[in-house]
Structure formats: structure tokens, C-alpha cells
Amino acid sequence: MKTNRVKVIDLSLEMNFEKNSCKFPYVSPDSKYMFFSSGENIYWVSAKIIDKLKKRKK
């Protein structure tokens, strides 16, 4: 079975959180939002950040 591997991006630093503090990312079924936790809080952002980071990291 062939698998695709991608380079991991630490979203914590991209969104002004402490390094490795963003946990359990989840993209909504409609692909519009990304949810994640940091500490005891839950946050959400537009999933467009994923495309922006992909373009910037190339």
C-alpha cells in the first residue's frame, strides 16, 4: 500500500501560541473551519489558513 507523506507544520507558532501548544486539530465536514485546543480552551479559525501555510512553506 502506498502512502503519501507531508511535512508537518507547527500551527502553534503560526498563530502566536507557545510552541507545540495547539493540539487535536480537526477540520469541519464542510472544510470551512479548523478547530483545535490549547491548554483548556478550544479555538476555531478559517480553514483558509491551511492553504496560506502550504503556499508559504514551499
Report a brief summary of the structure:
The protein is of the alpha+beta class and about 60 residues long.
What does this protein look like?
The chain has helices at residues 11-14, 48-56; strands spanning 23-27, 33-38, 41-46. By secondary structure, the protein is α+β, with helices and mostly antiparallel strands. The chain has a domain at 26-58. The protein has a 3-stranded antiparallel β-sheet, with no helix packed on it. The radius of gyration is 12 Å and the shape is globular. The mean pLDDT is 78.
Assembly type: single chain
Enumerate how many helices there are, as a single number: 2
The structural class is alpha+beta
Give the terminus-to-terminus CA distance. Answer: 27 Å
Using DSSP, what is the number of strands?
3
Which blocks of ≥5 consecutive residues have pLDDT under 50?
none
Helix content: 10-25%
Residue-averaged pLDDT: 78
Strand content: 25-35%
Order of helices and strands: HEEEH
The gross shape turns out to be globular
Keywords:
58 residues; alpha+beta; three-stranded antiparallel β-sheet; 2 helices; 3 strands; 22% helix; globular
